[in-house]
Amino acid sequence: MVRIKCSLCGYVFETAGAAPAFGGCPLSKKCARARCPNCGYAAALLRRRRGWGWHRRPCAGDAAGLGPFPLTALPKGGRGRVVRLDTSDRLRLQKLLSLGVLPGVQVEVAQRFPCFVLNVGLAQVALDATTAAAVYVTAEDAD
Amino acid sequence: MAAAPPLLFPYPPVLEEAVAAIVSLLAAEYPLAPRALALLLLADDAEAWYLVAAREGERVEQVRRIVQETQDRLGEPLNYTLLRHYHEAAATLAADVVSLPARQRQGWGNRLGAWTMRPWPGLPILGLVLYFGLYQAVGVFGAGTVVDFLESRVFEAWLNPWINSLVCSSIPWPWLQELLALDYGLVTLGLRYAVAIILPIVGIFFLVFSLIEDSGYLPRLALLADRFFKAIGLNGRAVIPLVLGFGCDTMATVVSRTLETRQERVIATLLLALAIPCSAQLGVILAILSGRPLALLLWAGIVLFILLLVGYLAARVLPGSGRGFYMDIPPLRWPRLGNVLAKTLARIQWYLLEVLPFFLLASTLIWAGRLTGLFPLAVRALTPLTTAIGLPPAMAPVFLYGFFRRDYGAAGLYDLAAGGALTGTQMLVAATTLTLFVPCIAQFSVMLKERGWRTALGIVLFIFPFAFACGFLLHRLLLVAGLTL
User: Fold this and answer.
1) Which of B68, B150, B237, B328 has the most crowded Cβ, counting Cβ within 10 A?
2) Confidence check on the interface: ipTM exceeds 0.90, yes or no
3) Nearest-CA distance from B391 to chain A in Å?
C-alpha cells in the first residue's frame, strides 16, 4: 500500500482505497492514475511504471468536469478553458498576458515535448513546463 | 466641452472608484487624458509612474496608496484585472462580427510547421537547414566559389599587380608605397580581405539568415532548443543571438541585451566570444577543411563540446537563475524577396560601415607596427605559443591579426592554407584555436559597452589561456593518437 499526495490539492491518501481514475477507459488496466478522493483530480500515479509509455501521461478524458487543474495535465490534443493564472510571479504573469493566454480563452495542447505548444485562438504559443504550470484550466470536450 | 460619450464597457466598480479617486488627485498638466493616466498607473506602467512622480510631488504617495488598496481588495495584480477586462470586452465585440470556420484546414505549411517543432522530424530538418544554409551556401558557395573568383581572378590577377605597378611608378617613397600597396598595403591587404574574402561570406550568411528569419523558422528552433539551452543556463530565446553570432559575433553581442537576466546575458556574451565562430571564420574554416570531412567533424564536435562544457560550468558558477521560456510561434510563410533583400542589404551596409574602417585601421596598424618594429616583436612573443601547439611560426601573425578582427585572422588563415603551408592536423588545431581565441577588437569594444569592463576583461582573460590550452591539448592528443587528417 502506498501513500500518495495529490499534486493538485495536496491531500494525502492511500492507494488501496482510491478508485482507479477511469473505469470506462479501454486502457484502464494499464492506467497508473488514481483519482484523489478529496478533489477528484486524477493526477496521482498509483504505481511507478517503467518506460515512456503513453499511458503514463494523462488520458484524454482525464479531468473532464472537475475543478481547475494546471495546463500541464492536459494530454496532447486536449482542450481546456483558462480559468485563472498563477499570479505569484509577476514577470511570468506578464509574459502569459502578453501572449494572450488569459482567463476565458480556450486553449488546445498541440504538443507537449520538448515544449508545450498551445493553440490559442488563431495563434500558436510555446511555453516551457514551468510557465505552462501557471495556467489553470478546466477541461473542455474535444469535438 | 461636450459631455463625454457613455462608456461602452465600464470597468468593475472597484476600478472605477480608484480611477475617479486618482483623477481627482492629479493636479498637474499631462499630455494625455487624466483617466488614461490613472488607468496606466493602476496597470503599474513604469513610464506613467515616472511622469507622475516628476510632476505631483507629495501627492504621488496618496496615489500609490489608492493603487495598493485597490490591489489588496482585488487580491491580484491590477494589470491582470485590466487585461482580462479588455479581453472580455474585445471578445464581446468580436463575437457579433467574426465567424470562424469550424475546422482549420491542415495545409502543407501547417504540417511542416508542426514537424519543425518536434524532435522528430524537427532535428533532421534542422540538420538539412544547417547543411544547405550554412555548409553549402556559406561554406562551399560563399567561401569557396565566390571567394576564389574575387581573390584569384579579380584581386590577385588583375587589381593587385595594377595597383602595385601604379604605386611603384608614381610614388617615390617606399614607406608610402608599403602603406598603400605591396604585401600589407591598404588596398592590397585591407581592401582585398574586406571585399574579396569577408564580404561574400558575410553577405551570403546574411542572405540565408534573412530567409530563415522571414520564414518563421527561428521561433521553432528556439522551442526545439529550449531544453538544450536550459542545460547551459540559457533558454530557447537565446537561440536568436547565438545563431546571429554565426554571422557576426559583434552584432550578436549587441542583440544579447534582449535576454532577460544578467546571468543569461553574461553567459551568452561569454559563449559568443568563445565558441561561436563568426561567418567569416566559419566560411574560411569550412572552406579549408571541406576536403577533410573527419577534421571538419572533429572541429565541430570539439567546439560544440567546449560550448556545452563552458556553458554548463558558467551556469553553475554565475549567480542568478534562468527565466521561463515563452514565445509566440508565427505560421511558416514564404519569405518575400523584397523584404529579404532589403534586410540583407541593410545588414551588409551595417557590416561594411563597421568593418571597413577596422580593416583599414588594422592594415595601417600592421604597417605602422612593421615600420616601428613593434609588430615583429609581438609576433616573436606569440611564436613560442604557436609552435607549442604544433603550428608553423607563420601562424603567429594570423593570431595577432585575429585580435584586430576575427575575420581578418580567418582571412589570414585562408591565405596560409591556400598556400599549402599547413598539414591536415595543423589545420584542425589552427581552426579550433582560432575559433576559441579572443574576440576581435570590435566585439571586445561592444562587450565593454554592454557588459561593463569587469565582465568583459574577465571573459577575455579566461579565453586567452583557455584557447591555447585547448589547442595544446588537442595537438598532444592528435600526436598520441597518431592521427593524420
Assistant:
1) B237
2) no
3) 43
